[in-house]
Amino acid sequence: MATNTRTAENASVRPQWLFCGTDESGTDHVYNTVTDYVVAVAPDGHRKHVADLTEASIDEWMAFVAQKRGWSDRRLYEHFGDALADRVSGV
């Protein structure tokens, strides 16, 4: 029998940081699920842009990048079916 007490801190299964993917320019996009910010990191490792998503969703950000730059390696999807379709079409 488990004896650990469940708290708000350890009950969450969602990680604080999610790697969204790499766009066509080589920029990595990382989403902070706690602050609702996306950090865009240039190939040289320097922070290129920080986007505040408190008025938008991560799905809107992903669509914005897809439209403006395109994804060379997308890792975050709104639906599992989208991820599966993308991986199958890339084979």
Q: What does this entry look like structurally?
A:
With 91 residues, this protein is of the alpha+beta class. It has one domain (17-82). The protein is 27% helix and 30% strand. It is built from three helices and five strands, in the order H-E-E-E-E-H-E-H. The chain has a five-stranded antiparallel β-sheet, with helices on one face. The longest helix is centred in the last third of the chain and has 11 residues, at 58-68.
Strand arrangement in the largest pleated sheet: 4-3-2-1-5
Give the percentage of residues in beta strands: 25-35%
Q: Rg from C-alpha positions?
A: 16 Å
What is the domain tally?
Answer: 1
Order of secondary-structure elements: HEEEEHEH
Largest sheet: 5 strands, antiparallel
Structural category is alpha+beta
Global geometry: globular
* First-to-last CA distance: 45 Å
What is the helix fraction of residues, given as a range? 25-40%
Low confidence ranges: none
Mean pLDDT: 83
- Count of distinct strands: 5
Give the helix tally: 3
Using brief descriptors, characterize the structure shown.
single chain; 91 residues; alpha+beta; five-stranded antiparallel sheet; 5 strands; 27% helix; globular
Quick description:
This protein has 91 residues and is of the alpha+beta class. The chain is built from 3 helices and 5 strands, in the order αββββαβα. Strands 4-3-2-1-5 form a 5-stranded antiparallel beta sheet, covered by helices on one side.
